[in-house]
């Protein structure tokens, strides 16, 4: 197999679909909820700052959805390390959402800063100090560290993703356990990041997602209850 021909790997992973349907339904419900909630706010505001805040929060929401899509696609192709990099991004989105839930006015500054200036104001060390919800922050922070080691930085730990338990692989390969575990972890990260985003949504727009997207929220709640997750 050519290193870039992933057809046989994808076929191998697709056979696992029946065991992952609860996670798939959850991810679909998360995407639908984010889309519906943000579309409710998708109108031109006469106040420039309010419009910038809307665009900033929208960036987090749609990036979350796109991160999940990209990560799952990479998983299906057998690129486990690269999929993990998007898990790190989901963790960062969750931390930023927690921060903006507590300080909604700061989202405007976040949208306008770039590069080093943004990092100095909104980097992980700054968020750690300022976020009062330490338990939720710590949860995201642990996943940020884990996926940084496995997916973002070249490290000794990431070599484990190239093994199927017998052979070390260069390029994409089928690894059923790693595929299922990462799929599950990304789903939980996406859910918790979306939930934190709901807190930020309420702070920024003074509206509860359950009121503006009641059916989508109900669908997500049903999917989460089927998984037995709580937060």
Number of helices: 11
Helix fraction bin: over 70%
Mean pLDDT: 93
Q: So what's the oligomer here?
A: single chain
Contiguous low-pLDDT stretches (5 residues minimum) are: none
- End-to-end Cα distance, whole Å, is 44 Å
Helix vs. strand class: mainly alpha
Count of individual beta strands: 0
Largest beta-sheet details: none
Coarse morphology: globular
Instruction: Give Rg in angstroms.
Output: 19 Å
Descriptive key words:
mainly alpha, globular, 231 residues
Please outline what is shown here.
The protein is mostly helical. The protein has eleven helices and no strands.
Characterization of the model:
This protein starts with 6 loop residues before the first helix and ends with a helix. Helices cover 74% and strands 0% of the residues. The longest helix is centred in the N-terminal third of the chain and has 30 residues, at 48-77. It has helices at 7-14, 21-40, 48-77, 80-102, 106-112, 115-122, 124-130, 134-152, 176-205, 209-212, 214-227. 39% of the residues are buried. The chain is built from eleven helices and no strands. The protein is mainly α and 231 residues long. The model has no long low-confidence stretch (mean pLDDT 93).
């Amino acid at each position: 197999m050519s290193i870039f021909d992933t057809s046989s790997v994808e076929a191998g992973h697709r056979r696992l679909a029946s065991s992952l349907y609860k996670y798939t339904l959850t991810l679909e419900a998360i995407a639908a909820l984010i889309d519906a909630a943000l579309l409710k706010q998708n109108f031109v505001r006469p106040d420039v700052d309010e419009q910038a805040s809307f665009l900033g929060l929208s960036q987090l929401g749609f990036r979350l959805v796109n991160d999940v899509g990209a990560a799952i696609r990479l998983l299906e192709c057998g690129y486990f390390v690269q999929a993990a990099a998007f898990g790190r991004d989901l963790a960062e989105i969750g931390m930023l959402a927690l921060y903006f839930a507590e300080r909604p006015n700061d989202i405007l500054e976040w949208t306008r800063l770039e590069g080093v200036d943004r990092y100095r104001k909104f980097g992980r060390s700054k968020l750690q100090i300022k976020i009062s919800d330490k338990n939720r922050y710590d949860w995201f922070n642990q996943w940020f560290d884990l996926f940084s080691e496995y997916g973002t930085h070249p490290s000794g730990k990431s070599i484990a993703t190239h093994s199927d338990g017998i052979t070390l692989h260069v390029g994409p390969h089928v690894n059923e356990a790693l595929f299922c575990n990462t799929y599950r972890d990304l789903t939980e990260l996406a859910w918790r990041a979306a939930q934190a985003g709901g807190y930020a949504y309420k702070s920024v727009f003074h509206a509860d997602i359950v009121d503006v997207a009641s059916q989508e929220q109900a669908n997500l709640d049903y999917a989460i209850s089927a998984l037995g997750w709580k937060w």
